[in-house]
Design brief:
Length: about 120
């Protein structure tokens, strides 16, 4: 699975949220100043080339749908982070977040309960 740029990832989040749509639909999902239509269309073509979305032609426009599930992307993304930054150890990652007060004791207890199940 090829890594996404921040712009591609943002658009992919909209695709997953909507489950299908046209460039104009996804463009409307951006908050604040909307990127140009051509920019969104270009990013969408890159996502298609990377295998993240499929396109179906309707007249002179394409409808896009995700080809990869969001959970699959998350799993791959997190695995890469753990591998590249935490010596391939989820324990190291959790320890990092606990030491930097990003995970509360309650969160850790909840995680332990999930692991035990």
């Amino acid at each position: 699975m090829e890594q996404l740029t921040p712009q591609e990832e943002q658009l992919m989040l909209y695709v997953w949220q909507a489950s299908k749509g046209f460039v104009k639909d996804f463009r409307q999902m951006y908050s604040g100043k909307k990127p140009p239509y051509t920019t969104v269309a270009t990013i969408m073509k890159k996502l298609e080339a990377k295998g993240y979305v499929s396109a179906k032609l309707y007249g002179n426009t394409y409808e896009y749908r995700p080809k990869i599930r969001q959970n699959s992307y998350k799993r791959n993304f997190v695995s890469n982070i753990v591998s590249n930054y935490f010596q391939n150890s989820y324990k190291e990652m959790v320890t990092f977040f606990a030491q930097n007060e990003k995970v509360s004791v309650e969160d850790l207890e909840e995680i332990l309960e999930l692991i035990k199940k």
